[in-house]
């Protein structure tokens, strides 16, 4: 194994796995730490461990991440990557800063880098400020994220609140300087360096200059240049052909727990296309009016009436979400929905549903956990950063599309099914 990666949520892990596979690495993605990571990694160039650590207490996230790092080291990884969201989802308590700092200590590093940039999906960093398309992130819908609202676009300032290590900036002029300029800047001073990056050439410059760092932290796109560097060093053979991805026959369903603006647009597009729809809400679940059984009954009936997959969604506008959080508590409102959608997925998998789209990082983690999936094979890309994947364990393989809430085009739910047709 060349690269061992630790991702703070499931959809982000899948996104990173796709980018590495697309660039010629044999990738295995695990959900949590398997009992024998060495066996899982035996034929892999890269292993991506998906944790559910983005919004848990920082000390728990640190402990989980260090466990993953130790396991990846024991399995033979030469380099390491800590993956977080391209929108830098975090609060003043973490968890990006605490985890990055702890991993740096583990690898005995005085300096490392942080860069969430993903230009293909409209996330860029300039003068240390994070943009979503043409807006600062603080002016984007991410300012109203129910768990990790991003209201400060200055990543040096944001990360400084999360770690005691100094935080510096590598500006775009240095990023586009002569080969070696980035490394010279980063290694001259202890701390964590925010890297400007506005297109893919900047991301490939990171790989060119910093591939010798034991640990790089960033969004998934930051890893795109690493396979070419490994190949040039003779660590990685010529790009391997992807194994055929043969989706099992069966029925499909879409489970959306994200309240992001893009997921809401995707739900509207599905509604206009005539997909059967069922809206659920945390208060209805808490009161017992909505149960896994009632949702499964709806899905089975709707799936039996035509070829279009049913959509079950809790997605709502920020005002509705805020009212539910006020009534139930911020964490409990989300957990009620995630738990129910996980139960629904598990029940449907036992009833012939083999194709499941999940929208939202927390929701996808709950769905995969309820399905008992522990390892995934990467399949065809639906939209940038979102592939179909296939479970590698269990009696019957399942096809899953695990989508971060903000990812995908408005017709994502429709394209996902067309890709498997």
Automatic annotation (TrEMBL):
Record keywords: ATP-binding, Carbohydrate metabolism, Kinase, Nucleotide-binding, Transferase
Q: Which InterPro entries match?
A: 4-carb_acid_sugar_kinase_N (IPR010737), 4-carb_acid_sugar_kinase_N_sf (IPR037051), NBD_C (IPR031475), NBD_C_sf (IPR042213), OtnK (IPR050007)
Q: Give the Pfam families listed for this entry.
A: NBD_C, SBD_N
* Domain of life of the native organism: Bacteria
Catalytic activity, as annotated: 3-dehydro-D-erythronate + ATP = 3-dehydro-4-O-phospho-D-erythronate + ADP + H(+); 3-dehydro-L-erythronate + ATP = 3-dehydro-4-O-phospho-L-erythronate + ADP + H(+)
| Statement: the UniProt record of this protein carries the keyword Transmembrane | no
On whether ATP-binding is a keyword of this UniProt record, the answer is: yes
Four-carbon acid sugar kinase nucleotide binding domain sequence ranges: 253-413
GO molecular function terms listed in the Swiss-Prot or TrEMBL record: ATP binding; kinase activity
Among NCBIfam families, the record links this protein to:
OxoTetrKin (NF043035)
Similarity field: Belongs to the four-carbon acid sugar kinase family.
Q: What does this protein do?
A: Catalyzes the ATP-dependent phosphorylation of 3-oxo-tetronate to 3-oxo-tetronate 4-phosphate.
What name is this protein filed under? 3-oxo-tetronate kinase
Organism the protein comes from: Rhodovulum sulfidophilum
